[in-house]
Design brief:
Elements: H1 4-13, E1 21-25, E2 28-33, H2 47-55, E3 60-63, H3 69-76, E4 81-85, H4 88-96, E5 102-104, E6 114-119, H5 133-142, E7 144-155, E8 176-183, E9 186-187, E10 191-194, H6 198-207, E11 211-217, E12 222-228
Helix pairs in contact: 1-4
């Protein structure tokens, strides 16, 4: 991995903002991901993120923290939070912005236990493929305290297929995408990224002994869910 996201975050934080990240998938065209959006405050966050932060309590794990937006807001509310991300650049920026506890770490390598685990900005994306969902849910279950909660958001992207859920080259689950990033003419290694419809997420949770309820629907086929033991 080239850590293109990390490089872009470092550039923006150090005052070298000149262009945005370009993203695209195997089913969508190129689009700009504005760097200022990756440094947004609470008032600029989507409704789902705001709702998740309001529900957050206890000792918190912020998974895929990026520049630390959620962690910083929670710290401001005197909530104990640990931020993790696989991007070294993201963690460097999060620390410089004031996140007290931030580590370069994969979710599957986390061993502490938490009252609230946040997976936001399409949190199911980290699962990569439908076949990996149960492995991640089992791990999350293992680091969740008895009365804890997992707050996760995603989208049902069936609308992007015009009723034909089979991709052009295979019959994989329609929410499994190949995700591409480029920044300043440098391209990242393609990522596997998963969008899960709520029914599929709920079924997967029940399979591993977790409950899953929908907290709220977003404005565009997205939703926030709460998972518990």
């Amino acid at each position: 991995m080239k850590d293109i996201l990390g490089k872009a975050l470092i550039d923006y934080h150090s005052g070298k903002y000149s262009e945005d990240i370009i993203t695209w998938t195997n089913i969508s065209d190129e689009d700009e991901l504005p760097l200022p959006y990756l440094f947004r405050g609470y008032s600029d966050m989507p409704q789902l993120e705001q709702q998740a932060l309001q529900l957050t309590k206890g000792k918190v794990l912020d998974v895929g923290c990026g520049a630390g937006n959620h962690s910083l807001w929670l710290q401001g509310k005197n909530i104990e939070v640990k931020a993790i991300d696989t991007s070294e650049g993201a963690i460097e920026v999060a620390k410089k912005r004031g996140v007290n506890k931030a580590e370069v770490k994969s979710l599957l390598d986390e061993t502490d236990s938490f009252d609230t685990i946040l997976l936001l900005m399409n949190g199911t994306g980290i699962f990569q493929e439908l076949s990996q969902v149960s492995n991640y849910l089992k791990h999350l279950k293992g680091i969740l305290k008895t009365d804890g909660q997992i707050l996760i958001d995603s989208s049902d992207i069936a609308y992007m297929y015009d009723g034909d859920f089979e991709s052009e080259d295979d019959k994989r689950y329609y929410g499994e995408l190949d995700y591409f990033l480029s920044y300043k003419d440098e391209k990242e290694v393609p990522l596997k990224w998963l969008y899960l419809d709520f029914k599929t997420l709920k079924t997967a949770c029940l399979t591993v002994g977790l409950t899953c309820e929908k907290v709220v629907n977003g404005e565009h086929f997205d939703y926030l869910a709460r998972i518990k033991l």
